Amino acid sequence: MRGEARGFTLVELLVVLAIIATLLALAAPRYFQHVERSKEAVLLENLATMRDAIDQYHADTGRWPESLATLVDKRYLRAVPVDPVTERNDTWVEVPPKEGSGVQDVRSGAEGTGRDGTPYAEW
């Protein structure tokens, strides 16, 4: 009796690898689109949260906060959120009011444009 060889042939392994490569080629672009879409959603949510905190501070005190750190110190924010595009919390651009000093608005300091074609700095 001769024992049968066990295992896969080279052709079988190549076919399986080709199938896996094809599936990855189809799935990878969709994955990266979802990652970009989620970063933009988080960016919009962080901007809305900080703008709401700035407005609440202004409504409570009658003046604009000196910086985003003031909002954290006065507990309007737990922490300065991270910009998901730059992955840092110190790239926010603080927009001063037309009259006086402080922070009236905040924008992203990220370079590039969103999926809708507008620069992140205009959000």
Q: How are the SSEs ordered, and which strands pair?
A:
Blueprint: H1 10-61, H2 68-73, E1 93-95, E2 105-107
Antiparallel strand pairs: 1-2
Helix content: 40-55%
Main sheet?
Answer: 2 strands, antiparallel
Question: Which residues form runs of ≥5 with pLDDT under 50?
Answer: none
Q: Which structural class fits the helix and strand makeup? A: mainly alpha
Q: Tell me the overall shape.
A: elongated
Going across the biggest sheet, name each strand in turn. 1-2
User: Taking all residues together, what is the mean pLDDT?
Assistant: 94
Report the C-alpha radius of gyration, rounded.
25 Å
Distance between the termini: 76 Å
The number of helical elements comes to: 2
How would you characterize the overall build of this protein?
With about 120 residues, the chain is mostly helical. The chain is built from two helices and two strands. It has helices at about 10-60, 70-75, and strands at about 95, 105. A two-stranded antiparallel ribbon has the order 1-2.
Short description:
With 123 residues, the protein is mainly alpha-helical.
Which key phrases capture this entry?
123 residues, two-stranded antiparallel sheet, 5% strand, mainly alpha, 2 helices
